[in-house]
Amino acid sequence: VFMSITSAVIIMVFPFYQSLPAFFILLGLMTFFSNARVPMLNALILSAPGTENRYAFIRSVGSFSFVVAGLLASWFVSLESGPGIGAVFPLIAIANVGMAISVMNINQSKVTVQERKKLQASRINFIEVQKILLKKPIIRVFLVFVFLTQVPLVPSLLNQSLYIESETGLDGTYFDVSVAMSIGALAEILFFAVYSKLSRYVRLMPMFFLAFSAGILRWIIVGNAESVEAVWVSSFLHIFSYGRMYMCSVMFINKELPASLRNSGQTLLALVYTGVSIMTGQLVSYVFLSGFELIHWFFFARALSVLPFPFWMMMKRLYNREHGVSGIL
Questions:
Q1: Considering the entire predicted model, what is its pTM?
Q2: How far is Cα 176 from Cα 15, in angstroms, rounded to an integer?
Q3: Is 125 exposed, middle or buried (0-12, 13-18, 19+ CB in 10 A)?
């Protein structure tokens, strides 16, 4: 609740600061408070019995909201007269307040004073929790694997948007960018809709393989695209490169760790998945684009997308050994 209200306040301040330094400071603060909610909400949802299947539905709602928000924002930006992009900020702030209200109404089991004291006494400090988590070899390999899959993804999505709009690229519009992102979000929904049934027949390891392999194919298509429509087609692969990767990563942590460590595990996953990897990817992209043209990034992204393969092999071997299974599926 605190994170959502704070995000809403920061967002409302955005239109009043026009300088880039102020914008980046506010963006950093908003990202900090917004992203901090994700692992806590994941742990909260998945802590209740029988909620793994419902989690996929919740993620679908989020993806659908992204589609609506993206198309709405592109419409505001494209208006020749009217409120413009500034009108988007109050809507985002209202959405954050709505999220705070919805979280307040989540039914949680009541905890007595004695139970709360017992929980506080048994609580382990942050450093000790990370030591416990990282003692498991499969968790260490998994985090490296996730890091390597995400390093090329977010910079490539941002560079894809720039490439669509660039006059030396595809010379598209804001709407073309929004459609590409919306197709990706709709593709996510398709995977979330079938995850519960698919997970009965296919284990996480082959799902991970398809997830990072799709990234290679995706950036091959974008790098050779001669029209915006070709990029739109490639956006369907978002069903694997993001939707499947994110869903399987959250479920992997939920299955591999005991209930007492899942909250910390989801936080550590978010730190690597949406924190360190994105920051590293953006830095790599900045250095690369300072010496090469934008189109060349997608060739480089293909090479980066191959790096997770040996860590996937190590992770699969450890997973099969721990769970007593063999084969691909």
A1: 0.82
A2: 25
A3: exposed
Question: For the chain, how big is the Rg over CA atoms in Å?
Answer: 21
* Alpha-carbon span 190 to 200, nearest angstrom: 17
Question: Residue 312 corresponds to which amino acid?
Answer: W
Distances (CA, A) of 245 to 31, 107, 315: 21, 29, 14
**278: Cβ contacts below 8 Å, ≥ 6 apart:** 150, 154
Could you tell me where the DSSP H helices lie in the chain?
2-13, 20-35, 37-46, 52-78, 88-104, 113-122, 126-134, 137-150, 153-165, 174-198, 204-223, 228-234, 238, 245-256, 259-270, 277-289, 294-306, 309-323
Smallest CA-to-CA distance from 321 within 198, 137, 130 is with 137
C-alpha–C-alpha distance, residues 193 and 244, integer Å: 11
pLDDT digits (tens, 9 = 90+) for 224-241: 999 999 999 999 999 888
**161-173 pLDDT per residue, tens:** 999 999 888 999 8
Residues 18-52 as b/e (b if ≥16 CB within 10 A, e otherwise) read: eeeeeeeebeeebeebbbbbbbebbbbbbeeeeeb
Taking the C-alpha atoms of residue 50 and residue 63, their distance in angstroms, rounded to an integer, is 22
CB-based contacts of 72, cutoff 8 Å, min separation 6: 88, 91
Whether the Cβ atoms of residue 256 and residue 318 lie closer than 8 Å to each other: no
* 11 alpha carbon, distance to own chain's centre: 20
